[in-house]
Amino acid sequence: MISTDRLAVLLAAARAGSFAGAAEMLFQTPSAVSQQIATLEREVGATLFERSRRGVQLTTAGQALQRHAEIIMNRLADARSEIEALISGETGRLRFGSFPTATASFAASAVAIFQQRYPKVEVRFVDGEPYENFARLKMRELDLAVVFDLKSWPAYRTYEGRPVGSESDVELVDLCEDPFLVMLPPDHRLAARRDLELGDLRDERITGSSNDCAPWGADLRHLCGEEGFAPVLEPLYSSADFQAQQAFVAAGLGVSLLPTLAQVNVRQDIILRPLRGGPIRHVHVAFPTGAYRSAATTALVAILRELALPLRQMTEDSAHEAKPARNASSA
Q1: Could you report the per-residue pLDDT of 248-274, keeping only the tens digit for each?
Q2: Cβ neighbourhood burial of 5 (10 Å; 0-12, 13-18, 19+)
Q3: Which of 69, 93, 71, 52 is closest to 9 using CA atoms?
């Protein structure tokens, strides 16, 4: 029999890339981790890791065992969650994640409302980027998370372009859409306009992250291409932080895009304008694929949908206003 404790050590070492990193994750000593891996290799009769000064890397046999270990540990986590829910009723534990702008807009409030309604349920909350919480969902470290994706950018991709999983790792429930706004300095030539079209950005320097304004740059490039021009994505001033991007705009170094959800933390020295036909973040609640969903999880999703309703209505109204009036004689 293969010990599930040693399978957990294998997964931690594979994830950390070193026995020392796995030891830190598991609150063990590097020596204890090394010994457990050695015992596991004797049990399966194969070398599972290639050791080097830079760390450890799974062998082909190790990769095969890793796939099975993930399935085993995930099923054990599901069994534990289901049994806890059956035994405890309204008590138990709920592990919830979100990304920063959603946390500031509604996810933190959702936690507060949930705890008022279900005071016996322990809520553990973590704030992080979508790809970070995607990895936590995949490893069953979270029960659910609010994430976003774009047409050209899945939630499992880091801002450097690396995948941390695949679509099959999670199940998504739509929550709302989060259209981007244009950030302008107050004295900009477009600041007097009520809203903007993509064509208005034709000759503007657009700042964003260093990876071509990831994650929204690819969508913007595609949409502008459909309008017949290529946007100028400024490579000299870059940051993935919206506060830093606001500072670039306020200093006159370019214009940028800001999600509607991020309006809760807007500087006084920039102007926001809607961008018709621009990129849209699609916000979802994500669950590990096939995982058991407790009554507490369902209750939290209902609260999230309730708090996101104003944004859903706002984007639906904006989409309706953007449609041209139909001719009275048309079918």
Answers
A1: 999 999 999 999 999 888 999 999 999
A2: exposed
A3: 69
92-98 and 55-58 as β-strands: parallel, antiparallel, unpaired?
A: unpaired
Q: Specify the pLDDT at position 20.
A: 93
Other beta carbons less than 10 A from residue 76's beta carbon: 14
Query: For 179, phi and psi rounded to 5 degrees?
Result: -70, 155
pLDDT at 323: 39
Give the torsion sign (CA, 211, 216, 218, 222). negative
Cα(280)–Cα(61) distance, rounded to whole angstroms?
42
pLDDT band at 1 (very low <50, low <70, confident <90, very high): confident
Q: How far apart are CA 327 and CA 321, in angstroms?
A: 15
How far, in Å, are 3, 168, 206, 265, 274 from residue 155 at the CA level? 33, 12, 23, 23, 24
Q: Quick check: 70 and 10 in contact, CB under 8 A?
A: no
pLDDT tens readout for residues 117-136: 989 899 999 999 999 999 99
